[in-house]
């Protein structure tokens, strides 16, 4: 991946590691995917699309990049899946300790394991909101518990996991799944209140892991395992906006973009989705100051009950 660049081509003063409120951490990893390969190319495609995106958001009437978005060096571990997960965990936790809003772009879904672990160690009573076509609740797959098919197993054991959009899974996953906190795609179609129900299940602190195959392949085909019957653009934004309004979203990741050089629409959708999520995160909390930077997110500080005891 290219380094030494600004996210979305924003001015340098908004992309410094010291002043930026947001950290964007690319993890171009695709070590355990079992069908469509190419998720390791996702972060670069996402960044290229972002550089061609307008940075004024019409809906929120904002330019969220002015809170500062630092594009961190990518985690490019070429070892075992466990090595990658440990590297993500360590890096994410270090940025949380620096009071950054940490976001990630993948890469396959296994990269989320380390990030969720770090957030769970740093925030009390964490909810993980998973938007995904697949349950990803296998304890082990192909000899590893760090496989993409196991991406949410640990979160299911250690956090309040709420799953949205699920429409593909193995029977063994039903044995560990809490179906009261799962919103299956075929049921969401006829449930006008699924958004209310999902939000009601969430605690105050929420981490979002967004697998792009949660979206319908008619609007995002470039993912490793596209499944019919997914979410569409505006219902997705409606749901996300409500989550950001009603809960304290402490961080998020977007994973499983497998770019197609003949069709860049998926790359651009991923870029817009990330920017919309940031726009919702900061717009609703009124965190701008005159020079564009944030002097401290009080909700963020109050929600974090473990950092003071963090062991370097």
Main sheet record = 8 strands, parallel
Instruction: Give the oligomeric state of the chains in this entry, treating copies of one chain as homo and distinct chains as hetero.
Output: single chain
Low-confidence stretches: 288-306, 308-312
What is the terminal separation in angstroms?
A: 29 Å
What structural class do you assign from the helix and strand content? alpha/beta
List keywords for this structure.
alpha/beta, Arginase, Chain A, disordered C terminus
In short:
The protein is 30% helix and 15% strand. It is of the alpha/beta class.
Question: Can you walk me through this structure?
Answer:
- With 312 residues, this protein is of the alpha/beta class.
- Helix content is 30%, strand content 15%.
- Mean pLDDT is 90; it is low at 288-306 and 308-312.
List the helices and strands and how they pair.
Blueprint (H helix, E strand, L loop, with lengths): L21 E6 L14 H9 L18 E3 L9 H17 L3 E6 L4 H12 L3 E6 L21 H6 L1 E7 L15 E3 H4 L5 H7 L4 E7 L21 H14 L1 E8 L9 H19 L14 H6 L9
Parallel strand pairs: 1-2, 1-3, 3-8, 4-5, 4-7, 5-6, 7-8
Helix pairs in contact: 1-8, 2-3, 7-8
